[in-house]
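Cross-posting from the modeling subforum.

Setting up a comparison between two proteins and wanted a second pair of eyes on the formatting. Protein 1 (sequence, then structure tokens):
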Amino acid sequence: MEVINANRHQRPATVSAGDWNPAFADRHPAFAQLGAVRFWEHCSTWPDCTLLGGRLPPGLQVCSGALVRFVPQDGTLPYPALYYEERIARHGLVATRANWHDFFNALVWGLYPAAKVRINTLHGRDIETAGMARTARRDALTLFDENGVVLVGSDRALLQAVLDFRWVEVFDPGAGWGTSLVCQVFGHALFEKLMTPYVGLTAHAILLQADAAFFELSLPRQQEWISHGLATVLEHIDAPDRLSPVPVLGIPGWWPVQNDDFFSNRAYFRSKQRTRRAKAYPLPPKGER
């Protein structure tokens, strides 16, 4: 990976829609979260909607009772007059293009299905009451859906350090990353950005506090638990300031050179400038999901 000068904000050119690369998961450590079954590795072109749909839990339904299905966003798209979220809420149809953005969106549907259904339900609720005008809740849901991460930790003080922007403390390699604190990428646009990461890349986090038993689980079981936990917590995300910004390239291993010069970049590792309503939510015990 090319090392970018940490004293500048450099955004590399985005990867074009035609650049399918089945080895993309080797480009950044965050892609390990996509799991060991890399069904895309034998694809010579973009996985089609049928293949992507095979990663969904059987019988996954939206609030209307319709089954979730990926459909091509082209001239054959059913109900073209409907807004994207309306088409999902009413008919379960997720319009999907052959590009990285929608590919990662489909993968996130497979990893966190309960949370994705909940996001769509909340969008639909606001559309029914406010029409197509954007509400603060829908802005927050979109921000998390596109650019969100979930930080799960067992140390309440460390989660508070995230909320307080105490980045040296948060990103200390001895802080328990991987053993008592994990960052799971949720936003499909964030996955796309991690293809070519740049200093300045910032996610918007929901923080969950878990007990030690969470960290003893396999990755798929952790993700299942997170998905169901988010389905409850998302009800409280009614405005963008319920999310906490996180300069994710500070996570150990997520940037090639994480030295003192890197962390001294105050344009990236900023201090807290205003009050936000973000907080750490308890992750419900498994029996309460």
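Protein 2 (same layout):
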Amino acid sequence: MGRSAQVGRRCGGAVEGIMAKKIRPPKAAKSRAVKFPKTGPGELLTLLDFVRYALSRFSEAELVFAHGTTDPVAEAAFIVCEALHLHPDQFESFATARVTKAEAQKILGLLEKRVVTRKPAAYLLNKIYMRGLPFYVDERTIVPRSFIGELLDSHFSGDSDAALIDDLGSVTSVLDLCTGSGCLAILASQTFHNAHVDAVDISKEALAVAAVNVADYGLDDRISLHRGDLFVPLGDAKYDLIISNPPYVDADGMADLPAECRHEPKLAFDGGADGLDVVRRILDQAKDHLTPGGGLLCEIGRGREMLEDAYPNLPLLWLDTEDSEAEVFWITAAELP
């Protein structure tokens, strides 16, 4: 299968990820100013009114929804709620509530920026949610949208039939490679309460964002941030669990990035000619950094066929989530060559 389809996953996401088709680049935004309506009686009054209006504008502008929201409705509701300092889960409760004039102007201003700049809403709001938790994000790091967050809940619980690790308390060391904003490292720390988490990224800028999130959750004593190329800054350290959402977009996909994704760091997407450059390095080195009972959980988008062709003898266990099928694999230390 061609790896150009990878851009549909890496650049098409959901709060927990989305299994998307290949995204065609949207038409460039017109340079003329976008005129937004004045609010008043009979025009835009309620939260729902603004969501409906946003949907019309988003459709007209052919936006791509690829960064923490699954569709234009979710994105519009996210923007409206954040403008009003509401959690997205509160939208239904206040959908028919009216907004003030000042609130209306704030909402419309954000919608205008989203349409004109084509920046992801997460960048405009400096916030994204994963597993219901808020995280800071800006253009120094990719907008997080990994399926691994869901898998930490569904496959790492002692009371789950699908559990990959039965005794969560036995996990005392976790490594998050390509940590970006640090979201997965933080989620891992909440899943494995006895674990210290090392989080690595090659980007100094991304680690600065991760540091904000680690501090916000008061986890400086449990999460250590390391700058470097994959395992290089870790020496001979070994871990009970390694998680990674590395760059995995191939060359065709990189050339086909939607406008929204072009606001994100190229380094976070580029997986080389076939999208597997970083994944190969992780697989080739992971065994040296896993404890005997440890395992590797790695997201690679839609590269299953190509990866299995490259490693025909590896017993990769492919995991599904609510919005994905076989885009994340699991393999134990004992199964690695």
